[in-house]
């Protein structure tokens, strides 16, 4: 009856609460809490103070729809259980028609691949919810307005939610405003797609999403004021089949990406980010992204600032493809492309005189291309200022090609560190404005030979190639003007149309009269009017050095070959100087004018300058790493132990070898062109092994073919009996190994003894043995073969038997030792050597093999070493000699108190002597004798004046010394005073324990007159001084004989 009454009462409360909500629009908080349900009962409870509702539901979409419908506008729903799609529910999802907040408390909403989750028509805030298995052709989890419907689309806020495994449209489609925080999107058919006014995404992660465009975020606002903000987000392994592997950001007022990381995203264009409109990308990182164009980013209007790009790949623009953009203070490392290893600046798609891409203050390192522009390929108008280029490979660092006059290339203040023969390729007929220098070299050439006569540089010293080898035909050329210095009427003007890739300059065939020519010229004005010319001199004929470049493998036979001619004839028997990387060598030409030099250098590229008199020429020596061959064999040590041996040729190799056995890797260093690794305790089964040599500075890597071996199940017996032997005896430790009851022949057995491992090989009987040459003692020994360990004990017995002992000084205890040979026989009547305290003695054993030695040493600890002449064993015995005078201590006492000097005498048996034993004492040069009492103690009174004394006691030839300090009991200070100024002389008296001694008579003697005074409670006695001016001695005396003298000085 009571239960029914409570239920009715609760029902009335709920109806009342609903009425209040309807009239006053009071916010509610609704709880779904299955944990608070009472089994077998339907219970509804209302907390009137909290305005919260809890009710059990069945965790279906229908139940959640009902809960949302019943919640008031602006209220919060807390989920206390998971929800799943239920059959028959609309595939458009749960409808939200009024403002609401849903806090999932970490619970999951599972659409089971049948439905969208929420169809949103009002403000919605979602927290702490896991969304999985959503499906709808338009959107899989959340839908909030169509494209272009931003005026009627709701606002969505999402915090700490997870969206995964959608199979229909994108996870979220919306048309209004949305903010996303601390959320994860994984394995969705597109994560976020919005035509909204504003989208903010912070502190979130997107992985393994896929779509046609913008697999993680597709942003396409229908209003020009739209803004996209992405901050501190992670994008990993997202794939778009068309544009923007992770992010597609189009139109709107602006898009911003800050402090975010993009890893392994892919698309056709813009592997990580694609933006055809204004975008800012700031302080972000891009790794291993891939696209055909713009491996990480493709943008047509925007800024990329303070960002890092590494291991991105594309056909055009390994990291970035850009137009009309600013790229400032970024780092580009190890990016790769066909054209533009790091950056590709595309020709504009919109005709504009202001369409310019600016690249400022960037660093380019280790970028590579297969065609053009190891760092930058510029097809549009491009400025490159204050950038650094280093170790970029395969081609020139900057490549420029366009025929649009408005698409200028401007370069300034760049530092290019490259091994390529030129740094900038200006492959265009466009004129340029940046400063250049045309430098004519000083060269010597034989008649009719070709020579590199000039090179072009920018103002920063970077080498420029300005056209291909056919372009000069249309008048875009470099002119060289040669005037004979001896006859100015001999003059030649030539077009330099051939660019030499090997030297990085322009070549000229010298069909001229022999002589010396001043060389000047000019760059066609069709290119620039801003080019300075630096003249040079060309010698045709005369002495000519010909030194071809050398390319060889490390250790190869190729040599540096030098030919010296004079007007075409060889110059013999003269020295030429060869400078390689700053080191000078000298060689002499032969009858054909030739000299050569062996090149024994490690792998690398070396600059060579060869000089004869006043002429010189340069060459390059390139030493390439040597090919290697790796061969792998294996040897079975036991049924389950295999040693792998890799042999590498040639024999000059170093480095390491990695053995791969059934997928697992093992490493070993190369020594003597070989590397070995032993695999122990292998399980029964089949194995496949391969060896890979890592290579070193002079050698390339190589791999062996695979070898296969099998470990079979074998019964192994290892016998290793305990061994007992005398020191230096002939017995050996023996191990017997059998497999399947047969002796194992020629296999290694590991014996671990005394912390060291020894390898022994079995003989024809399957036995391996080891000599035991250890000091006497017991040793644990472990024998190992085929994964089996056997534990044994080796006992080495003494051939000198003697125990440590302790004795009293000069008692009857002596040293005894028994000597036997290595077969255990007594050594009778044999001389043996004993060493104690650094002194050697010889003693002869008796018929029991025993040697004796008296020990008469002073108290202390000694080591006696006995040498056995038969076995060679040296045995040590520790001997402790104890004093017979004990309990003697230093003494500190006050003058004539009761303290005494005490000691105790021990007899030869270590026990105290009895009464009447005489002890001699010496203190302060006076000798005394005292006798012990019944307990062996001796006492001596000390009545000496205050001071420090040494007391020495002697008994049975043993002496022991101590320090005795006698402290004074009287103390006073000298007095300096004026005549009758009232000063008193004060003396302090202490008792036998050092405490003030009161009410004692002190006698003072001053100027021949005696005075008695009594000490006060502080032990102080005082005497008035009324004497005439002068110096006086005052003597203070106490009845036990203590006396003290002081000086009293009185001035007038």
UniProtKB/TrEMBL annotation:
Main location: other
Matches recorded under InterPro entries: Big_3_5 (IPR032109), Ig-like_fold (IPR013783), Pectin_lyas_fold (IPR012334), Pectin_lyase_fold/virulence (IPR011050), POMP_repeat (IPR003368)
Record keywords: Cell outer membrane, Membrane, Secreted, Signal
The keyword Signal is annotated on this UniProt entry: yes
Membrane-crossing segments per the record: none
Every Bacterial Ig-like domain range: 639-711
PANTHER family on file: G PROTEIN-COUPLED RECEPTOR-RELATED, OUTER MEMBRANE PROTEIN PMPC-RELATED
Stored NCBIfam families: POMP_repeat (TIGR01376)
Name of this protein: Adhesin-like protein
Organism: Methanobrevibacter millerae
Origin organism lineage: Archaea, Methanobacteriati, Methanobacteriota, Methanomada group, Methanobacteria
């Amino acid at each position: 009856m009571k239960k029914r009454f409570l239920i009715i009462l609760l029902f009335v409360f709920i109806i009342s609460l609903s009425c209040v909500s309807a009239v006053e629009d009071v916010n509610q908080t609704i709880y779904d809490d299955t944990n608070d349900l009472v089994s077998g009962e339907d219970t509804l409870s209302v907390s009137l103070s909290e305005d919260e509702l809890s009710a059990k539901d069945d965790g279906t979409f229908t139940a959640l729809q009902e809960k949302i419908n019943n919640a008031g506008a602006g209220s919060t729903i807390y989920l206390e259980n998971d929800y799943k799609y239920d059959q028959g529910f609309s595939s458009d999802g749960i409808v939200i028609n009024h403002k609401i907040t849903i806090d999932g408390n970490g619970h999951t909403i599972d659409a089971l691949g049948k439905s969208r989750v929420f169809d949103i028509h009002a403000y919605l805030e979602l927290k702490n919810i896991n969304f999985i298995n959503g499906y709808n052709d338009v959107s899989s989890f959340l839908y909030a307005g169509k494209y272009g419907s931003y005026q009627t689309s709701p606002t969505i806020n999402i915090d700490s939610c997870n969206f995964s495994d959608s199979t229909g449209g994108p996870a979220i489609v919306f048309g209004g405003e949305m903010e996303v925080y601390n959320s994860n999107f994984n394995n969705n058919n597109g994560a976020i797609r919005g035509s909204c006014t504003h989208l903010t995404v912070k502190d979130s992660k997107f992985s393994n999403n896929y779509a046609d465009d913008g697999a993680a975020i597709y942003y396409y606002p229908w209003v020009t004021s739209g803004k996209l903000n992405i901050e501190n987000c992670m994008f990993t392994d997202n794939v778009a089949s068309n544009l923007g592997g992770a992010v597609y950001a189009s139109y709107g007022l602006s898009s911003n990406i800050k402090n975010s990381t993009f890893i392994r995203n892919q698309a056709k264009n813009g592997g990580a980010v694609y933006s055809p409109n204004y975008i800012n990308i700031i302080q972000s990182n891009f790794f291993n992204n891939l696209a055909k164009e713009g491996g990480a980013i493709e943008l047509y209007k925007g800024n990329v600032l303070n960002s890092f790009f590494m291991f991105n790949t594309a056909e055009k623009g390994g990291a970035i493809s850009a137009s009309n953009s600013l790229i400032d203070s970024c780092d580009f490392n190890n990016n790769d492309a066909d054209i533009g290893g790091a950056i590709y600046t595309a020709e504009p798609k919109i005709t504009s005189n202001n369409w310019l891409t600016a690249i400022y203050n960037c660093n380019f390192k280790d970028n590579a291309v297969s065609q053009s522009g190891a760092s930058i390929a510029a097809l549009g108008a491009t400025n490159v200022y204050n950038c650094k280029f280093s170790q970029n490979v395969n081609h020139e660092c900057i490549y420029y090609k366009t025929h649009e006059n408005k698409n200028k290339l401007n370069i300034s203040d760049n530092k290019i560190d490259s091994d390529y023969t030129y740094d900038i390729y200006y492959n265009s007929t466009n004129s340029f404005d940046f400063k250049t220098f045309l430098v004519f070299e000083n060269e010597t050439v034989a008649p009719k030979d070709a020579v590199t006569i000039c090179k072009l540089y920018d103002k920063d010293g970077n080498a420029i190639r300005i056209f291909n080898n056919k372009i000069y035909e249309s008048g875009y050329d470099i002119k060289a003007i040669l005037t004979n210095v001896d006859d100015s009427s001999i003059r030649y003007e030539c077009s330099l149309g051939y660019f030499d890739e090997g030297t990085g300059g322009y070549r000229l065939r010298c069909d001229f009269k022999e002589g010396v020519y001043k060389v000047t010229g000019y760059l066609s004005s069709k290119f620039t009017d801003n080019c300075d010319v630096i003249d040079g001199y060309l010698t045709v004929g005369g002495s000519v050095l010909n030194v071809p470049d050398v390319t060889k493998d490390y250790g190869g036979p190729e040599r540096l070959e030098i030919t010296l001619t004079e007007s075409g004839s060889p110059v013999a028997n003269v020295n030429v100087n060869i400078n390689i990387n700053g080191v000078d060598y000298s060689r002499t030409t032969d009858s054909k004018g030739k000299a050569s030099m062996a090149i024994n250098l490690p792998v690398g590229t070396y600059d060579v300058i060869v000089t004869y008199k006043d002429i010189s020429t340069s060459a390059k020596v390139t030493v390439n790493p040597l090919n290697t061959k790796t061969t792998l064999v294996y040897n079975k040590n036991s049924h389950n132990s295999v040693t792998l041996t890799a042999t590498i040729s040639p024999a000059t190799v170093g480095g390491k070898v990695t053995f791969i056995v059934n997928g697992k890797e093992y490493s070993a260093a190369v020594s003597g062109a070989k590397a070995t690794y032993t695999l122990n305790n292998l399980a029964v089964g089949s194995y496949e092994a391969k060896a890979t040599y890592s290579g070193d500075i002079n050698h390339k890597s190589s791999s062996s073919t695979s070898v296969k071996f099998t470990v079979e199940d074998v019964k192994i017996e290892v016998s290793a009996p305990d061994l007992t032997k005398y020191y230096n005896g002939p017995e050996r430790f023996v191990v017997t190994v059998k497999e399947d009851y047969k002796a194992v022949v020629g296999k290694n057995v590991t014996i671990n003894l005394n912390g060291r491992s020894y390898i022994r090989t079995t003989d024809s009987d399957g036995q391996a043995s080891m000599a035991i040459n250890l000091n006497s003692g017991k040793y644990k020994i472990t024998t190992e073969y085929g994964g089996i360990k056997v534990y044994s004990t080796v006992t080495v017995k003494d051939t000198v038997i003697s125990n440590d002992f302790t004795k009293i000084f000069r008692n009857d205890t002596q040293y005894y030792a028994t000597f036997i040979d290595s077969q255990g026989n007594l050594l009778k009547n044999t001389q043996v050597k004993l060493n104690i305290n650094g002194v050697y003695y010889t003693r002869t054993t008796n018929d029991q093999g025993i040697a004796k030695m008296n020990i008469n040493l002073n108290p202390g600890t000694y080591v006696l070493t006995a040498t056995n002449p038969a076995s060679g064993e040296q045995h040590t015995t520790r001997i402790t000699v104890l004093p017979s005078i004990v309990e003697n201590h230093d003494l500190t006492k006050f003058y004539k108190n009761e303290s005494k000097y005490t000691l105790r005498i021990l007899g030869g048996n270590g026990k105290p002597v009895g009464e009447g034993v005489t002890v001699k004492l010496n203190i302060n040069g006076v000798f005394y004798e005292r006798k012990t009492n019944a307990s062996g103690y001796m006492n001596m009174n000390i009545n000496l004046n205050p001071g420090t004394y040494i007391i020495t006691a002697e008994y049975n030839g043993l002496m022991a010394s101590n320090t005795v300090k006698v402290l004074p009991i009287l103390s006073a200070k000298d007095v300096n005073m004026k005549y009758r100024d009232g000063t008193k002389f004060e003396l302090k008296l202490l008792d036998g324990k050092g405490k003030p001694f009161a009410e004692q008579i002190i006698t003072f003697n001053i100027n021949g007159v005696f005075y008695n005074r009594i000490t006060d409670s502080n032990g102080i006695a005082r005497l008035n001084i009324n004497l005439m001016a002068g110096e006086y001695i005052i003597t203070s005396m106490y009845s036990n004989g203590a006396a003290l003298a002081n000086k009293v000085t009185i001035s007038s």
